[in-house]
Model the fold of this input.
Amino acid sequence: MDSGLIQEVVSATLLAGTPLIIAALGLLMNERAGVLNLGAEGMMSLGAVYGFIAALSFSSPVLGLAAGLMAGALVAGGFALLTITLQANQVASGLALAIFGVGLAGFVGKPYESQSLKAVGEWSIPLLVDIPWLGPIFFQQQPMVYLSWVLFGAVWWFLYRSRSGLLLRAVGEDPAAAHAIGRSVVGVRYLAVIFGGALCGLGGACLSIFYAPMWVEGLIAGRGWIALALVVFATWRPFRVLLGAYLFGGVLIAQLFLQGSGVKISVPSQLLSSLPYLATIIVLVLISRDSRRIRQHSPASLGRAFRADE
Done:
């Protein structure tokens, strides 16, 4: 494998992992606040379809991203109303959101399945792109790759360097204590859930506008569930979310390369297509063996409803 091909594979890996980074960072914020939202697949699907429709209708990728973000935030707000205000079960509500979102996206997007968008060009960062070998990989990328890095830095800074991030983590660990010192647990959780839904919608729009500029039913293809798994893989830490997303992206690109390279291998294409998901399952099985580490980093009130009168 020559140097140019390695550059292409690594560069494609960064783009393939970008929607997962964006969605998983949003889910990380949800869960750090103590709310478990299993509806990522539905939110990403709705973000993808509405983002595609807006980008196609207005010939603007930026408006498409905004539409995807708002679609995710809107349905996440409904989830927050059910689980935070009305105290519905978070697991059941999240699963219902996932099923509803995928179904609604397929229905809404049916008239647009034969259409596609103009591919968005790569952005080159002056001077940095001229760095030998690394420059074309990291500094000649789709704009969403750069945005995912900015979001990663912002989420990390918010969680570990800001007072608001400390409050959010406190709400996830002990909401009763946060309430006792006069903090609004409900308000913090609402903001976290809506922010998480917005990023899931943005991740879906990234898929339908930048990664594969088209809409087909099933475009998300389980990435919402992978994003949820990545948060556990990362033990609720942003840097490991980044690594996990690129691991999945690398396996995805590797199997696409094997299928398209013409290399004769006696492995069914269906098995190759399942490799990213198998890799994720294997990693989760391995890390789940270390229950002490998971308990150490998992928010103590994750998935538990909070009532101020208790």
